[in-house]
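User: Can you help me understand a structure? I only have the sequence.
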Amino acid sequence: MRRGSGEEGCRDVLRASFGSADGQVRFLGTAPAGLTRPLLEVWEVRRAIGALDSAHAPPLHWVPVEELLAGVGSPGLRDPRTLAGLTVAARSDAFTAPSSVEPSARVGTERRVRLSDFTLRPAVANLDRLGPEHFLNGDLSLLQFNARVLALAEDPGVPLLARVRFLAIVSANLDEFFMIRVTALKRAVLGGAAGSGDDGLAAEAALHVIGMRVRALLERQARCFTDVCRPALAANRAAIFSWTELSKAQQGDLERYFTEKIFPFISPQAMTRAPGHPFPLIPNLRLSLAVLVRDVGGGPTHFAYVKVPDDQPRFVPLSDGTGFVAVEDIIRANLRAVYPGRVVDEAYGFRVTRGADLELDEQHASSLMQVIEEETKRRPFGAAVRVEVEGDMPQAVRELLLRELQFEDTAPAGSLGPSDLYAAPSLVDLGGLRDLARLPHPTLDYAPHEGASPIDPGRSIFAVLAERDVLVHHPYDAFEATVQRFVTEAADDPSVVAIKQTLYRAGGRSEIVDALVRAAGRGKEVFVFVELKARFDEERNIEWARKLEQAGIRVVYGLVDLKTHAKTALVVRREGGGIRRYVHIGTGNYNAATAATYTDVGLLSADPDLGADLNDLFNELSGSSRPPQTAFRRILVSPTFLTKRLLELIAREAEHGRAGREARIRAKINGIADPEIIEALYRASQAGVDIALVVRGVCTLRPGVVGLSERIRVTSILGRFLEHARIYHFANGGEPEYYIGSADWRPRNLRQRVEVVAPVRDQVSRARLDGILELQLADPTAWDLEPDGSYRRRTSEGGAGADRRSSQERLLALGSAIA
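Assistant: Let's start by predicting it. Here is the structure, written out as tokens:
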């Protein structure tokens, strides 16, 4: 990068760098000045071969474009000026237009390389001063997780409807990512925060990187949908037709559908500001049409907005059963009915994403429920952070839409710019594909699965638990036959005198909630802690809390400035002239729907210490607004005790390693991003501890770095089920300890939530946890995290005839036999 501007300035750079100004050049745009860099002009150069023949030319390394975009922002590629320039290029067609010269045909001092060849190796001389180079970026790690979900959609070994479902999940995940993470980064930039996270990537630079990575991800998603899934759906009588592909009869059917089902619920609004026509506030994630209309006799063009009605399916089935049509295509083809007497020149689909995190002043709230209710009503109209438009929307219309959104009252100055506009390579909002993934085509989806029933249905569940602990693993063990049965049987058992439980996400319909209501009606003492702040489930949890209160149940909504994420239930039963406590401590929600698709573990036990611990915990939750302060006997509770104990366990393992004793840490978690825990793991690795982590999502730890973390490996498993269990294992010099619970190793879990982790002491249960960990660490379809933050999928492990089934497939085949 050099000073100057215009084509001549570009050629000066070529001349100074390569000894020749030859080459085809094209201006791509400018990157505005930032906090740490000047305004930049970005040019594309093609056919620069003559310059590369010079004996004075420096070595030139070619990196594949997809790898470049997937790795931008990694430790080796994050210079602010480079990021700004790449952002401009990514918004153009520079990375999608085919190159006129293949790198392999070039000459001179050139070679193709992998971006990881340039990964910066962190200095490890003094671990007392961990620096940004010792960490990966959490937001980019989340996007990497989404890339792995997309890889499942691209996998030809995955059933068609599951591939379609994974495409929809990618879109849903990106929606949440923008609503929460991108909103937070924008607030940091607008607030003048020049600081950065643990990895050193500042908020402004992170936004540039996210834009590039998301665009590359969307291109991949569109190719998978357009080139693979859409033709395959068509081959199975589930084609998605455009309006022009329909016959006259089919169009006539859909015109009648529009008149009867859609038109009565359409209310077009002007988007151009005018007296008497305030600018409409477009709801969050609502598919809409931007329409340009004018009078028949001429006159100015007016910019209008048509919202797709709430109750419409994303894809409307044809009456002849041959396929579907996107709902926006039906509305677009019938806009003459919406604007009679006017000419509709153009209409393009778009969607606005808005910031969705609630801003709660819990310290001064007189009613937490009321504050949350009020805030959730504002959520659909937060500040816009992303605008998705159809790819063929002209630039002038894009600019008009963006300009009007910038005038919104909720839009902070400078919060929405051209980099926040995303042109959809295919349809806007592929999240709607989730409807097609539910089509009744059994041969196109995973085979149905019915979980096992590890507890004899002919005996009382409490009689079984009085004899032994039971470890359950969902969905391989049926939730209904285990955890749900634990609560429902307690509700109907005349010997049960009390039930106490936490609820985080109970779902839309809940047998467990019904059982709690029934128990209260039978005179049992029932206490429920309903966490109202469970993101995007606030309104549903408010409904559950009110239903429970109306049944006479003692309900607590939450602790000030903390979320209660623990998955715990306590049943108190009168037995033999005294009482006995039974517990469930798990990793997943008390939700039968998600238990069928999430993998979770839970411990059912009559251990007196666990029962006494949960009794003390519920007493604190019901009687105090502070974090739990009790010195518990066995359970580990955050935010007061869990972090300290985890650090002690890791340090103890390091001591074993230094002494030459058996030293090993294995953990299965959803995420790891706590710098204190990561530093402790680095120290343990240096002390000789072998550390194997199965991390589904975010991971800011850098594994495999020589001198720092070469004994740490990180594996990620994705598949039919969402991996959600948390299991910790410490070898402890030959006296191993196992734990399960609700806590990931992230700051929010360890420091901002009430989480419960319990030891597993029963040998049969331990053996089952050990089997789960071993299967997952050896999964031949898993991904391995590289030191630069990229992931490599295992594709060629094992010789001919090796078992290539995933750990999930093997567990399905085993059922409960692993116990």
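Now, to help you interpret it: The two ends are 62 Å apart (CA to CA). The longest strand covers residues 342-354. Let me know which part you'd like to focus on.
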